[in-house]
Write a structure and sequence with these properties.
This protein has 46 residues and is an all-beta fold. The chain has strands at 13-19, 23-30, 36-43.
């Protein structure tokens, strides 16, 4: 039988990245309460 581990028991923060043609965005989320600790969006250039 498989069991799922609650992410809050393993890590303090989660980093998410969303890439697009013109911009890239990243956010840091507090895994204990889901609060956004920081976020940034930058231009995607060559």
């Amino acid at each position: 039988m498989n069991s799922l581990t609650d992410l809050r028991e393993v890590v303090d923060v989660v980093i998410g990245v969303d890439t697009h043609v013109h911009t890239h965005s990243a956010a840091v989320i507090d895994s204990a309460n889901g609060g956004v600790l920081g976020e940034i969006t930058v231009e995607a250039t060559a």
